Write the structure tokens for this entry.
Amino acid sequence: MTNLLNDAQVQQFITDGYITLRADYPPEFHQDIYQQIETMFEREGNIGNNILPRIPQIQKVFDHPALKGALTSLLGEGYIMNPHRHCHLNPPDSPGQQWHKDCYVFDHNMRHPRFQWVLALYYPQDTTEDMGPTGLLPGRQFYKRVSHADPQLASEPAAPLCGEAGTVSLVHFDAWHRATRNHSTKKRYMLKFQFARMQAPQSPSWDHKHREWAGDPNDENRATSVDVWNWLCGNHSFSESDMSGNGASALVEALGDESETVRLNAAYTLGQMGGAVVPVLIDAMRKETLASIEETTAKPPDNLHGTNPTAGYAAQALSAIGTPAVPALVETLDDEHWWVRAMTADVLTKIGQPVGDTVSALIERANDEHWWVRRNAIEALGTLGSLNADATLPLVDAVRDEDYRVRRNAALTLARLGEPTDEAVPGLVNMLEEENRYNRFYAANALRRINTPAAHEALMNALFTARWCSITTNEDRY
């Protein structure tokens, strides 16, 4: 049994960018996890992604009905736990961090209000505000920037995520957050896990009663929030607005306003205007995309594998328009610039509707000369539902692509489709031996979901070879 969220809770998550729950096991349960973490740090240090196999009891936190229900509500059935996880220690007298967004580990996902990933932040001990809890800027998850990364200079109101042992905050992946200063004499552990959607929403996956939006009346990003709500409800259509002419022109101009709030509201107001504004938005998308190329290809010191850009405002407006924008987007997949093609494929990913020549056009782009275009086109194919055999052949080829991000997304798309595709098994088996640890996971996940006898045997052979014994340590080897 799972405890699904209700309409008000889902709308709160959309507006604020987080919701706090609790795995209400007996206190001894969380105390035991805390003590195992303490022992691990003393004997081995921080073992990174292996925190879960080292302390398998942690899985029960995310199997709790409240957590399973909330994750299903936000990400739909069949969501996955990603292989990257980390135990964050915030010791006494630590200064805390600056405001930041997490990167999508060694991949180039596009940030977008229509979220695909959720962070889960678990406290194994009672955590009060003086212990340096995670701080979060509510309602800023849609924004590329905040007033200042230095918390002493930032003007946005912050929320400390506190709670007793067993508290878990589910957070929009693009939320601005940080470890706050620990003023206490106690250690603060926080276990960060990541979960991802596997299917585009077709209907509400929570305890849904009322279709209308009844969110925070003070939400300055109401138009954006309503679009996310409609998308989660499976509504891929749009509401025609009676605004046209000068009104639409003013909104397109507002896409370049200095204020991100103005730009977001303009984008999602345009998103309600339907096919009439698609041509001008296509042009605006191309201009804003080309203007972002330097930012897109930058590799800052804290993210040497590259950035996770935020979709531009015209691109977000086209996503909100949905199906009526697809034919023009399919034409734009042939643009002369690789970054425009990549952005266009991402917009089609966010729309997730197989209209007209969408599938054949994306298949063609799956063979594009630029890896980012191939990556995004393959990701888009995974949002369109079931594909025929001809459409899965590029995925079979793509699991052997020269670029690791293309291979990863080919495996992820094969997993999303879940088709019995034995032709992909040899390439996925090769991925199981890659140096990239995350690609190994996605290959195993694809084999699991393909689930033919050949895929099952390959997966089990690999898992038994790589089996981790959680009770074997340097002090107890045998």
User: Anything to note?
Assistant: The longest helix spans residues 27-43.
